[in-house]
Design a protein that fits this description.
Helix content is about 30%, strand content about 20%. It is α+β, with helices and mostly antiparallel strands and about 350 residues long. The chain folds into three domains: about 10-70, no CATH class; about 90-225, no CATH class; about 245-345, no CATH class. The strands form three sheets. It has a seven-stranded mixed β-sheet with strand order 6-7-8-9-10-11-12. A five-stranded antiparallel β-sheet has the order 2-1-3-4-5. The relative contact order is 0.09. The structure holds zinc ion. The site of zinc ion (ZN) has 7 residues, from loops.
């Protein structure tokens, strides 16, 4: 007799090996019977998007032990995430697509393999506003998180990290508390044969309630989870950056959008980007001719005005719908700053 499949596979995809439609097999015989009656045509696969072998799976019904999926005899499979949470990245991808559609946002969710499989992380990208939300499943070391953050922020107007169970290093959490005052977390709840995401914000000793995606909103400042005590935005009451500035800002004309009105690390990535570009441009323009210096000064003033306007629209008491438009102006401004800096460099 063939060796039974001892992996106790609880998740699969439906339809074909490449499918993105995940399923959690009910453990109780009665529920599995009901599933079979309701969906007699379903076929189950050890999906490639689950990091699986692509082989076909059968649903094994037991009354005396838990039901599970099983490979054909003698299948060699190296999939590791066989448990009930093994398809969570597919469930969230679906949830995000649905959420974006419902909220009328043009966006895409993409799976990210960081070396241990397709379920390491899921990125949500809003097309027009170039906003990003990273749902992190795999545990990252602090330096890994840092470099991933820098990479994601490079061309993003806002970036939010939402961490799965155990995926954030304590140092990373420390830094997140410092930046935003809270850490966003996700977990999943099993609902029938699917699982759906719940999100909350943890703020040191207290947390908000776990809520579904539908309760959250994508705002120009990023993902907003209800109940989060927003810290007063730096752009309203500018604070001087505590960390020493890198020497890139070295001697140059005094910047209007520069250190004096510099805001803290909680500022939106777009504002930080504009500030950085202004600093870089000023450093470059210092040794350029008068014509270029005039252009640089004009952009500097424009940036200062934009930062203030954007700050007003995205104050502590939520955001104004106009902010999306103003964010786009900030993008345009950043492009002009980059262009002038390139012509000098
Ligand atoms: Zn397999």
């Amino acid at each position: 007799m063939a060796e039974p499949d001892r992996r106790l596979v609880q998740t699969a995809v439906i339809g074909n090996a490449a499918s993105g439609l995940g399923i959690v097999l009910p453990q109780e015989a009665e529920e599995l019977r009901r599933l079979r009656r309701r969906h007699p045509a379903y076929t189950y696969w050890c999906g490639t998007q689950l990091g699986g072998c692509g082989g076909k799976l059968s649903d094994r019904l037991y009354v005396d032990k838990v039901c599970h999926f099983a490979h054909a005899p003698h299948t060699s499979c190296h999939r590791e995430a066989n448990g009930a949470n093994g398809a969570d990245h597919l469930f969230i991808k679906q949830d995000l697509a649905l959420w974006a559609r419902r909220s009328g946002v043009g966006a895409r969710a993409v799976l990210r393999d960081q070396g241990s499989g397709p379920g390491d992380a899921v990125d949500f990208r809003v097309r027009d506003s170039r906003q990003r939300v990273r749902f992190q499943f795999r545990r990252l070391t602090h330096p890994e998180w840092r470099s991933a953050s820098e990479e994601l922020e490079r061309d993003a107007a806002s970036l939010d990290w939402v961490f799965g169970p155990g995926s954030a290093h304590p140092e990373t959490m420390e830094e997140m508390y410092g930046r935003t005052g809270h850490v966003l977390r996700f977990r999943f709840e099993t609902q029938g044969v699917a699982r759906s995401i719940r999100i909350r914000a943890e703020e040191g000793w207290s947390s908000t309630d776990w809520v579904p995606l539908d309760a959250c909103a994508m705002t120009p400042e990023g993902l907003r989870v209800p109940g989060v005590e927003r810290r007063p935005r730096a752009s309203r009451r500018p604070v001087v950056e505590t960390a020493p500035e890198p020497s890139a800002v070295a001697p140059g004309p005094r910047s209007t959008a520069g250190p004096a009105r510099r805001s803290g690390p909680r500022t939106s990535p777009l504002v930080r980007k504009v500030q950085r570009l202004v600093d870089e441009l000023n450093a470059l323009a210092a040794s350029a001719d008068a014509d270029v210096r005039t252009k640089a000064e004009r952009l500097d003033r424009e940036a200062a005005g934009w930062i203030e306007r954007y700050g007003r629209l995205t104050g502590p008491d939520y955001w104004s719908g106009k902010a999306t438009k103003v964010a786009a102006q900030g993008d345009g401004l950043a492009r002009r700053l980059e262009k002038l800096a390139r012509s000098l460099g």
